[in-house]
Design brief:
The complex is a heterodimer of chains A (362) and B (169). By secondary structure, chain A is of the alpha+beta class. Chain A is built from four helices and 19 strands. The radius of gyration of chain A is 23 Å and the shape is globular. Chain A starts with a helix and ends in a 6-residue tail after the last strand. Helices cover 74% and strands 0% of the residues of chain B. Chain B is built from nine helices and no strands. The radius of gyration of chain B is 18 Å and the shape is globular. Classes of the chains: A alpha+beta (362), B mainly alpha (169). Chains A and B meet through helix 1, helix 2 and strand 17 of A and helix 1, helix 2, helix 3, helix 4 and helix 5 of B.
Chain lengths: 362, 169
């Protein structure tokens, strides 16, 4: 009997002993390089435009949208590399700078309503060694990394209270606010880590060498879903697959909208025994819509899709403390009822997997 | 320092090995090819700055791109390999055992899977794995240990192999 440790190499070798031929790989990589170079060149041009603006005395921070190609359909419009419409929100202000000239920049915007989402793109990609942070009126709202391409979208606050993202900023609807964006690199100090972990406070100030990159950052605000430009529906939807991984727990239940009586917007309930490790759930989407997740009638999550590509909300963990924080007094072994309330779906484009919580989950 | 004129040669010579690593992470040859090409294209821009081990850099881009992919979107992992014909009882047992181990590997969290692939397929040292994944050596050790424990405690393996079950006590 071999143990997993000794047979790992055998399994790895066995599984990779035959692989598909790819004679054109070199040409395909060259094509990708060309595409990336064009993207980087476009971002550099945008940065130069900003630099010229600075040279003639314009303020660095500016609000409102820059040049947008009106011939492009609304749902795929970009401005200086940022999507105009993303994750149910619209870009309301943005700015650009180069990291070899400065590490931070500010802009002002007027609060309209709803959730507050932030995104930035960096060309070339800054990699994981450089962190980005953003604040509103001096309150740190979040952080992450800055990549090229579509970038990542960071929504401040948490469901169900989008207003929570505005708490502490003192910004009412209709008022102007100041967004600050900054780059950091190097080893994080304890005070910097504590500051960012608290979600409020002053930004980390450590400094280290940083690669030169063109940065565009912007602020998005939630819009009425009816006013959000969805991409056109493809003739054939992507195939729902999943779950992402069952490695973190046993599957306790599955809901596939394609087989739900009443259609993709019909509510579904599952009643299961709460495991000691809590619960995990994963939602997969291939069409636009929203799914509210409730436990014993208390909403604990809202997940949305804004396109037709395969997208997932994976690995959402619900610990007993999470349930207690939501006002639910349930213990391992108790029966809990999970209710899924979908809406805005025009296609049966979602699946739900309920799993026993991972022992490793925080 | 790597010369960009050598990039094409590197792609031709080293891609098969790197593709295998990408496959062990993604468990899908098409995804593995996409992951490899993405990593190679990203690496091209850094090629002139790389020291004498560009393969380590590309491998690092592969594992980090793999991690970021799975943060942004997910796709189902459905092993589709067809087992070869079974020859006899001994071979059958070994095939069953390896297949169960392969399935169990697929159920590991992605970081633990990446650590095992880098340690036991790429034969990297713990320090090299730590560098590739941007984590500490201590985390590599703990993730390796957790992954091996998890493989031994996997329900499927336990059911199939009472010896493993006995090893737990």
């Amino acid at each position: 009997m071999t143990t997993p440790r000794t047979s790992l190499r055998e399994v790895f070798d066995e599984r990779t002993v035959s692989m598909p031929e790819r004679p054109a790989r070199g040409a395909e990589v060259a094509s990708r390089v060309t595409r990336l170079r064009r993207q980087r060149a476009a971002a550099t041009v945008a940065a130069v435009v900003v630099a010229v603006g600075l040279a003639v005395g314009l303020p660095l921070g500016f609000s409102g949208l820059g040049r947008t190609d009106r011939a492009v359909p609304a749902w795929e419009q970009t401005t200086d590399g940022l999507k105009v419409w993303a994750v149910g929100s619209k870009l309301v202000a943005h700015g650009s700078f180069r990291s070899d000239e400065r590490r931070s920049a500010t802009l002002t915007f007027r609060r309209t309503a709803g959730a507050l989402t932030f995104s930035s793109v960096c060309s070339p990609d800054l990699g994981k060694q450089v962190e980005i942070y953003w604040s509103v009126n001096g309150h740190v709202m979040g952080g992450g990394s800055c990549a090229e391409g579509g970038g990542s979208y960071y929504t401040a606050g948490s469901f169900p209270d989008f207003e929570s993202s505005w708490k502490g900023t003192g910004v009412a609807v209709g008022e102007r606010a100041t967004l600050r964006y900054w780059l950091t690199s190097g080893p994080r100090t304890a005070s910097a880590r504590a500051s960012s972990d608290k979600g409020m406070g002053s930004p980390p100030t450590y400094r280290a060498a940083m690669p030169d990159t063109a940065v565009t950052f912007g602020i998005y605000q939630r819009v009425d879903p009816a006013a959000y430009p969805l991409p056109p529906r493809p003739k054939k939807l992507a195939v729902l697959t999943g779950p992402m991984s069952a490695g973190d727990g046993k599957i306790l239940g599955t809901v596939d909208s394609r087989t739900v009586t009443g259609g993709p917007n019909a509510a579904v309930t599952l009643t299961r025994t709460l495991p000691v490790t809590g619960l995990d759930y994963q939602l997969g989407f291939v069409s636009p819509g929203q799914v509210l997740v409730s436990v014993n009638g208390t909403a604990i999550g809202r997940h949305e899709s804004w396109g037709y590509g395969e997208w997932g909300a994976g690995g959402t963990h619900i610990s007993r403390s999470d349930l207690a924080a939501a006002g639910l007094d349930v213990r391992p072994g108790d029966k809990v009822t999970i209710t899924l309330t979908p809406s805005r779906f025009t296609d049966p484009g979602w699946t739900f997997y309920l799993l026993a919580g991972s022992p490793d989950a925080p | 320092m790597a010369d960009r004129s050598e990039f094409a040669g590197f792609v031709a010579a080293r891609s098969p090995r790197l593709l295998r690593t990408a496959y062990l992470l993604t468990r899908d040859w098409a995804l593995a090819e996409d992951l490899l090409q993405t990593a190679l294209a990203k690496s091209w821009f850094a090629w002139g700055r790389l020291d004498d081990d560009p393969e380590a850099y590309v491998r690092k881009v592969i594992v980090n791109t793999y991690a970021s992919w799975w943060r942004r979107k997910w796709r189902g992992e459905t092993p589709t390999e067809v087992l070869p014909d079974r020859a006899g009882p001994d071979a059958l047992d070994r095939l069953d055992e390896r297949d169960e181990l392969w399935q169990a590997l697929g159920r590991l969290p992605r970081r633990q899977r990446a650590v095992l692939v880098l340690r036991f397929f790429e034969d990297l040292t713990e320090a090299q794995v730590a560098d590739a994944l941007d984590i500490s050596v201590g985390t590599v050790k703990s993730q390796t240990s957790k992954a091996l424990v998890r493989l031994r405690l996997d329900d499927t393996l336990i059911a199939a192999h009472p010896v493993l079950n006995g090893d737990r006590s």
